[in-house]
């Protein structure tokens, strides 16, 4: 039809710009390894911050007792308690509760926010259950805090700034663990924070509890991040004399990686249209709250952006190629109207006339489409999700090969597990497939069967509680 005549070359160009053939993947993996090394050498040495987590005792399975986890990372707030029974009994029971942070507390004072968190924790702890702490022993908490902090020990970290729509006054520059401990003291709650971690680190700890071969954890949700188990003597910026057997978890903050990424005009336009061009959005709720970085890994692979990039490409095809006929659907011009779950819903369509694609387009953007235009929409979605999944896979190989370069056989010579979590990975089957395909392409066949990429379902909650246990103040 006349539509495909005009749009076909645009689609071809898009596919060329997004192409991730083996040399592109290899270059991304190699740059990831090199940037990791540079970031481990000296603070500020690379786009990758290579942040020390201070988690240097990993869960072994021997942990016993009642521990708590608390997760603050967005509008949702989660508390969990877990009874650990050691090697034989493992996780005896878990209970958890989730609630949203009241809007007014997101711009309250630091005391008000932490008092609220403390009282939620108190209510939750008082609900009893079948297990109790031994007399005289405080409840210990693993605190997953997914905002930028400058960590100074396993149980302290200075908040650099609030993000994700939080504008709480008086916390920046303070130790968030002290803020919570003080709030608990004010209320006479007999609990304390034993470990402060981010969600990738908590996921790694949670997965490692079940499987000693877990070396890497990757979060692919609204944003993205990765961390891995590193030898302390391979971290020059630690400037100590460590035995090679001592290990710690290093947080890459890999969203800021940016070397060799295949980009399109739509990526650049999206970036330029953001309030602070050239920077990383750190908010899914408030797009005007941005932290400095640049056109980066996070914008090409994470869930926050895939829908928006596709929307921009479709908008262009509608305007310049009459993708949806003579008129351009007005609603399609609204930034972020098309979301990543919409792309995924469309790609699961198995009907002959692509009914789901049609109804998603209509419901989301009031677009009337015919079979031809629906097919093109699917091609556009697939182009971006393929690029994203494959680049994420290349990033993972970059981490694995860095460890392997240091100690031959450490990764590829044995079974190695990469623990994955996050809504994008969990719910987008095409994304998962492209990611795994890229990993397989980059690794020689004899060793690729040693690399296991595994979804760690909700490992982060238990992971944080486990880190409270391994870093317990008792014993
Ligand atoms: P977080 O916001 O903390 O990252 P999640 O790990 O649950 O929380 O990830 C949520 C993100 O996952 C969403 O922003 C979206 O990008 C992506 N997502 C959610 N559902 C789907 C889906 N059905 N298909 C594809 N991506 C999805």
UniProtKB/TrEMBL annotation:
Its EC number is 2.7.1.-. Keywords: ATP-binding, Glycolysis, Kinase, Nucleotide-binding, Transferase. Coiled coil: none annotated. Residues 11-209 form the Hexokinase N-terminal domain. One of its GO terms (cellular component) is mitochondrion. It is an enzyme of class 2 (transferase). InterPro entries: ATPase_NBD, Hexokinase, Hexokinase_BS, Hexokinase_C, Hexokinase_N. GO terms for molecular function: ATP binding; D-glucose binding; fructokinase activity; glucokinase activity. Pathway: Carbohydrate metabolism; hexose metabolism; Carbohydrate degradation; glycolysis; D-glyceraldehyde 3-phosphate and glycerone phosphate from D-glucose: step 1/4. GO terms for biological process: glucose metabolic process; glycolytic process; intracellular glucose homeostasis. Belongs to the hexokinase family. This is Phosphotransferase. It comes from Hibiscus syriacus.
